[in-house]
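Could you help me review a protein record that somebody else here produced? This is what I was given.
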Amino acid sequence: MRMLSWVAAGIAGLAVLTVLRWAVRRVDALERRQPFPYATVAGLLVLAAGTATPGALRVLTERRLGGIASTLTGKPVAIQCQSLGGAVLDIGAELGYVRFGPDGVPEPRALIKRDQCGDLAAYARSGRDKPTRQQVIAVHVLTHESMHMAGMPGEAAAECAAVQRDASAAQLLGATAEQARALARTYWTTVYPAMPAGYTSPQCRAGGRLDEHLPNAPWDR
């Protein structure tokens, strides 16, 4: 259980203790009935709900993204969205990552940075017809890390496999086929060419060695 969940549980516990204390002391030493502490209990419950909400929303987002990643990889995998504390301490430039074991086998989970998880959630809530550049990149980060979990340690291979599945990821996030193809095309034409050399390959093209001949590939045939 994450820190905010513990805090929310503690606040809810205070509300319960307040009710129990009232129940035990409903009548004071002078036989006067004590009013129920509605304001105190309500305030504590509202505070507990407000504290728990971000964590609950993150869990829902992680479950949805994990389901999409599992579809893209063809096996059960999970997505973890970076916490606020993790983001504060984070000095890495990567937008997501998957750990590989000494045997070269990837862990069945990926971490996606806090901003990118937020962008993915925002894209899923939107009309998806005019995604921001950040949302386009975030969808691709999900696809890229999914390719790592599928067993592709190399960045160039994972990147090329991902660009051919970005449209599928966008559709799983609620986009129409046309919206999904437009998003994939935007990444391919505006972001991919500017990626570092280790992430690109001249074979990532129509008819190239990395072309999987998928129907949603972003290049023109």
The chain is about 55% helix and 5% strand.
